[in-house]
Amino acid sequence: MTTSNSKFELRGINHLALVCSDMKRTIDFYSGTLGMPLVKTVELPGGLGQHFFFDCGGGNTLAFFWLEDAPDAAPGVAAPKGRPDEGELASAVGSMNHVAFAVPPELFGEYRARLQADGVEVSRVLNHDDSPSGVAKEVHDGTFVRSFYFQDPDGVLLEFACWTREFTPEDVVHEPKTAADRRTTGAS
Q1: Which residues contact 183 (CB under 8 A, 6 or more apart)?
Q2: By CB atoms within 10 Å of each CB, which of 134, 152, 167, 180 scores lowest?
Q3: How many separate domains does the chain show?
């Protein structure tokens, strides 16, 4: 997948910063279970908390804040309540819905089995396509990515995904929705 940016020379994601409730447990999961090296730790000034960075490959990092005064998690608002294969996808505008890590297609099944062996509950494999349901039971010419989902100890939705084909101009065909198209819920 090669496209070019005529405005900025962007080189991927430097880091995505999330918030955890227990930095030790977060290290155990991301470095232990997922094998991501912890590469930088920061104590925030004034006893505010901590900011730790994990190498997630390709020069990119995943960072976590541990903040002494962080509000409790809000599943269904700040993040999905569960996994997409369970019918859970909604999260609030401005929230972080999930993090998808690119994995080699040839190791996709092995990685899923490894997580299961480590006691991580994983979704079924989803072969994402352009069908009305958005997924197919089997990989076919219209499948563009294969993935499965799981959650970290704080409920952050994670995904291991691998592209199955190159994108073409024909892959950009939908009219964008606007704020007027939303069905809002909750108080204004």
Answers
A1: none
A2: 180
A3: 2
